[in-house]
Amino acid sequence: xxxxxYDDKIxxxxxxxKRLGASGFSEYEGKRQQVKTPNLRSPTFKMSxxxxxxxxxxxxxxxxxxxxxxxxxxxxxxxxDFLDPVPRTLFMPLNLNNNSNNNNSIAHGPTIQPRVxxxxxxxxxxxxxxxxxxxxxxxxxxSQAQVEYLTRKLDESKNVVQTQKAHFRKSIEELQKKxxxxxxxxxxxxxxxxxxxxxxxxxxxxxxTTIKELAASNQMQEQALLDAHERLNILQNRxxxxxxxxxx
Length: 248
Hints:
Keywords: Coiled coil. Helix content is 69%, strand content 5%. It is mainly alpha-helical. The strands form two sheets. Strands 1-2 form a two-stranded antiparallel sheet.
């Protein structure tokens, strides 16, 4: 195979790589255009030209002691190299002496660089959830204490209401005896009785409404506590999975 055939094949590979969206070919193409494959069968070819070109290549790739780096040596890995989740296309080397490479297909496969999971945000989130859990538990205890206190007050109020009802009933009976002779007295007595009953019923209704609101708030706080427990378990499982993945 002539050197021109190699150049044509490499040019086709470069065009195919650009079409597939692979990166890093523009720099290689510029270098390839500067350094052509020598035609050994050319009548103008000289071995001295090949030796001179070889020396120039060695000088360009010389080791620089002052800068402590190689001329075209690969750069050291950085943190961003391990945190980059984007897969890159890797073109496999071609065996130009193999006749199976005469087609224009290119063997390539995706390579994904490893990730380093940062566990600090997970730990911080677990700590925040633990604080939220503690606050919710404390709020739940306070709400339960308030419910118990209001329930006790409600029972006391009911007892007071029953006592007042008995007292009012007795008073009304006495008033009925005194005012039974007049219609105005009876009407006034009925109004007093109805007003007292409405006041007592309003008081009981308000207390029952307050208890229902506290019970609903207590239920919401319990649900929030369950959600916090669930999120905490999920984060702990994720943390264990991450630690297991890192140890492996």
